[in-house]
Amino acid sequence: MTDSERRADRQLERAILELLERRAPTATICPSDAARAVCTGDDDGWRALMEPARRAARRLVEAGEVEITQAGRVVEPAKARGPIRIRRVR
After folding, report:
1. What are 45-90's pLDDT values in tens digits?
2. Is 23:53 a contact under the CB 8 Å cutoff?
3. Residue 12 near residue 52, CB atoms below 8 Å
4. DSSP helix, strand, coil percent of the chain (3-state; round to 5)
5. Which H or E run contains 11?
6. I want to staple 85 with a disulfide (CB 3.0 to 4.6 A). Which of 28, 36, 44, 68 is the partner?
């Protein structure tokens, strides 16, 4: 992993936590919200950050900071397939 990739990973983790901090305690975000917050371009460059954003969410789950949900239920990050949401730990 390059320094640039590590920096992007940390930016995505911070973006997830900051976005959740600005929302209601029960609110969720999509990984795309974090990808868009970190992306510096005006085009669809955020799409390339989607998988890194999902990985950042998984790291934050491991750290006990957030939960990943599907259909409103907490799921194991490794088992999540398809769209996910991220929320604060309850």
Report:
1. 899 999 999 999 999 999 999 999 999 999 999 999 999 999 999 8
2. no
3. yes
4. 55, 15, 30
5. helix 3-21
6. 28
